[in-house]
Specification:
With 154 residues, this protein is of the alpha+beta class. The protein folds into 2 domains: 2-81, no CATH class; 95-151, Beta Barrel (OB fold (Dihydrolipoamide Acetyltransferase, E2P)), CATH 2.40.50. It is built from 5 helices and 5 strands, in the order H-H-H-H-H-E-E-E-E-E. It has helices spanning 2-9, 12-27, 33-50, 58-81, 95-98, and strands spanning 103-111, 114-119, 122-127, 136-143, 146-151. A hairpin with a 2-residue loop joins strand 4 and strand 5 (146-151). Helix 2 (12-27) runs antiparallel to helix 3 and helix 3 packs across helix 4. The longest helix has 24 residues, at 58-81. It starts with a helix and ends with a strand.
């Protein structure tokens, strides 16, 4: 049945397969079927030129389609991943990192290396040298949920 359809439609069968794969990508997004659909369309374009040649058997078409699919997937992944992590707000979900360089007043003294400050509307646990409450400190770096602080020179 499928062989009869392919024989009747000819090289356009690859175009139909490619368009069906591209349509399936709309239903199942993931940018994977796009590359396989592009490989099918490429085989369809090549088939338009060499359909009547003796070497262009279905086995050759299938092997070339498989190889092009793999190549297109690798090339497509490389193209899409080259600038995927660029952001205009790189610290958006790293709130502790976004506080580095800010100054605050110690809300609770730092004793045995730990204390608390208030920045904006949040109290943060800080680590640093022992200092009394009310001392101005600068956030030097973020260590997970804790902020590393150092005293501000007056």
């Amino acid at each position: 049945m499928i062989a009869a359809f392919i024989a009747e439609v000819g090289p356009w069968s690859w175009w139909l397969l490619g368009l069906a794969l591209l349509a399936a990508e709309l239903v199942m997004p993931g940018v994977f079927l796009v590359w396989i659909g592009a490989a099918a369309i490429a085989i369809g374009a090549l088939s338009l030129m060499v359909w009547d040649k003796a070497f262009w058997a279905w086995e050759v078409q299938a092997l070339l389609f498989a190889a092009l699919s793999v190549a297109f997937v690798f090339i497509g992944r490389r193209l899409l991943s080259s600038g995927a992590n660029v952001s205009d707000q790189p610290l958006l979900n790293q709130r502790g990192q976004s506080l580095v360089g800010r100054t605050a007043t110690l809300h609770e003294p730092i004793r045995e290396g730990r204390g608390r400050i208030r920045l904006d509307d949040t109290f943060w646990t800080v680590q640093g040298p022992d200092l009394p409450a009310g001392t101005r400190v600068r956030v030097a770096r973020s260590n997970g949920g804790d902020l590393m602080v150092e005293p501000v020179d007056s």
